Amino acid sequence: MSTSSPTSLPGPPNLASSLRARRGGAIPGLRYRQVAPADPEKAAEVDHRLEAWARRLDLFPAAWSGDFSGFQFGRAVVLQHPEAADLERLTAAGELLLAENVVDSCYCEEDEGRGGARRGLGGRLIMAQSAIDPYHGIPELEEEWREGVRADGPLRSYHFALQDYAAFATPSQTDRFVHDIARLHLGYLAEAAWAETRYVPRVWEYLVMRQFNNFRPCLSIVDAVDGYELPEAVYARPEIQRITALACNATTIVNDLYSFTKELASDPTHLNLPQVIAANERCGLKAAYLKAVEIHNRIMESFEEESALLSATSPLVERYARSLSDWVAGNHEWHSTNTHRYHLPNYW
User: Fold this and answer.
1) Counting CB atoms within 10 angstroms of each CB, which of 79, 175, 206, 272 has the fewest?
2) Domains, the chain, ranges and CATH?
3) pTM of this structure
């Protein structure tokens, strides 16, 4: 990969400071499937369990309570897993989602004021990986590793969230999740490296990075949460990997689109798909944003068409494709209705 940037941010005059945010709601012209609202009682119960779990593990200070309630973890997982087998599995999905956000906020995000930094990120992330992919060695060093995990909130969150997930997931499903977290960490490192060197990627390069730095760990668990297993031999097939990647990529672009105004308000150089398109094509942010919507729609169309073809080959594959589609649709609903976090640019 070239080490020189094709251009530099902001490229055309950066319009982040002059963006007028409009109310929430679905992005006009975006391809998505509508879903029913989340059951408020079920979402509240999951939130109650998650907050008790986080407090028990001392994962964050009281000052973070507003962020916790504003994120709406319970509503997110209820929307993403409408066919979840039980509340325990929904809660475990919420624990994993919460843990991933704690690690991201505390280790990666410099602008959140929680200790995140690009410099030295690799060392922190390898320790994070070890919290779910345990160290094996001589007993005294294993105990030192365990003490290190127990002493750090982000590490505790990973370790105990995976422990609860593994209590009902098969070893194969658990191992799948561990490997997809490693992919996520690789994406974090690429994004941090580009930010540190002020490299502005080409559009295809950015989307490659986002195929790793995306929601895939969340989608890795859909079959376990719904109470079945897509066997490893089937999951590993290239065509299954493709629809999984398409689902993950589509929903990650959704995140870029809904978080666009929030990210640019806090950091005008933050990489997201519209910003990268604007820099590469020397166009305004509105035109770039609308092109990002088009890219998302084409990916979603491919996911829907290819999933339908594969679903006709096997009832189990059909169930897995439906679980993926449910997660993508539910996550879109969460983004489009979470006005605490997201507001659309006034482009329509």
Assistant:
1) 175
2) 37-60+67-168 (1.10.600.10), 200-347 (1.10.600.10)
3) 0.92
